[in-house]
Fold:
Amino acid sequence: MISNDRRLDRRGAMRTLLENRGDLLLVTGLGSTTWDAAAVGDDDRNFYLWGAMGAAAMIGLGLAIARPDRRVLVVTGDGEMLMGLGALATIGVQRPPNLALAVFDNGHYGETGMQASHTAESVELVAVARACGFRETFDIIDEIGLRDFGDRVHNAPTTLFARIVIRTDEPPRVLPPRDGVLLKTRFRRAIGVE
Amino acid sequence: MREPTAAEMPDWPDEIFAALKAARIHQVGYVPDAGHARLIELCRDDPEIRTVPLTTEEEGVALAAGAWLGGQRAALLMQSSGVGNCINMLSLTKTCRFPLVMLVAMRGEWAEFNPWQVPMGSRTQAALELCDVLVYRVERPEEAAETVASGLEIAFNGDLATAVLLSQRLIGAKRWVK
Structure:
């Protein structure tokens, strides 16, 4: 389908963020960002959430604190971030230098019928993150901005927050494993702690 | 009211802290409670423990999962009212079999002045058990450290969720009129 919508494509955006990922660890939120990561390619170093809405950012924080030697990227959606908005306050206080949060923002709850989210109305996630203490924030609308952020994920000296504006579409679901114990254990094996 | 002298301070928070150290806990997430005040202070003062103040207790459940993914052990400190905030997040713990240790300062069960604490306080244990969290209670100071140590062992040896409820009788009812 040809579209005049110039906003970023979510699958392409995920692919860009994971290009040359090196030893990057990835946490994705319920649910579309989990399908996006699976579409780019399943990897033992991906921890996908199929539930526990609102958990993604805090899992990233615990992981980043535990492994200061690795870079941690959390990619989640606007609805998932809104459910755990307090996590931005908590992470804004901690700011581990090896953590980056990226929110794919289409202003909608894609998994439940595309109802509008708060970001389609008055809520500006980047402003929230800045107010919570994030020192480096990104409001990304194009491929250049996305690539710049993707580079910063690997070398920033502070916790990053990016809002990435994406098209409101629903590409076909690509489902990664959903066995939570498998996802946990293979992740721990992949980084040598199991 | 004067501050209690060192000799009058209860020892059980220090003993629980020693149990956390012995179990190699490196992250402690908490929402403050007066009953945890001393333990929070000890954790904050320890250079080997990263303390993470939370805006709501469910954040701590996710924090502990992330810590474990990275090979570190975490513990959560909260008040009984906070257990209710954790319910859906405990599906993460159960589905993935993450080890989890919650130390819960009880309110609403012993000489409680504030009736608003009673609904959650009186259902804390039942709510945890509904979510398949193993629950242990501490009534007397001499039981505190060994009960926490036991909860830590079970959680990390078996990838299970445990909660130790520190009873309001142990902590002492909150003073409302000074």
Chain B touches chain A at residues 26-27, 50, 52-56, 58-72, 74, 88-89, 91-92, 95-98 (CB under 8 Å). Residues 141-158 of chain B form the longest helix (18 residues). The beta strands of chain B are 25-30, 50-53, 73-79, 100-105, 134-138, 161-166.
